[in-house]
Amino acid sequence: MTENKFSKYLLYAIGEIILVIIGILIALQINNRNELRKSEEQVTLTLLQVHTELAENIKDIDGMFLDLLEKDTIVNNIMNNRFNPNDYKERWSYIDPLNYWSSLDVRDHSFQKIILNTNSIPDKYNELINDLQRLYTDDKGYVQSSSKKMVE
Asked: Which helix (H) or strand (E) holds 121?
């Protein structure tokens, strides 16, 4: 009879251990899902910040382009003697239009955050990250070197 009680107790203990192990595995799975969700939210937030920076960079480039277009028009008008002395008095930029250049500083802080956390970014973003890397290395270098050449 005591052996029967011992075997029942042993089965009960094994059942309890299995239930505890199953509970731990479920808790780990829930924790992993929560960590993945947090990681996804962080990546999404950072990508939105990259989008905002890109929009600001485009706005700056458009402004720079309009500024260059205005300077080109002024130089063309000066070369063709379309200004009279009063025009020069009213607008100082007509006197030396090529002397005032603004350089472009491409914003990339959010992209740098992505690069620093590449290991925690889900694989589904790999293609997008690769495209952003090309944009921020090749294209950014070209834009900034062109901007510096104009300033010099």
From this structure: none
* Tokens representing residue 2 in the block: 């005591």
Mean pLDDT of 118-141: 86
pTM (predicted TM-score) = 0.69
Token couple for 13: 């203990």
CA distance 90 to 88: 5
Q: What are phi and psi of 108, to 5 degrees?
A: -150, 25
Mapped onto helix, strand or coil, the DSSP state of residue 118 is: helix
Quick one: which H or E segment has residue 94? none
Measured CA to CA, the distance from residue 100 to residue 69 in angstroms comes to 13
Six-digit token string for 4: 């029967």
Is the predicted pLDDT of residue 50 greater than 90, yes or no?
A: yes
Amino acid identity, position 49: Q
DSSP classification of residue 137: I
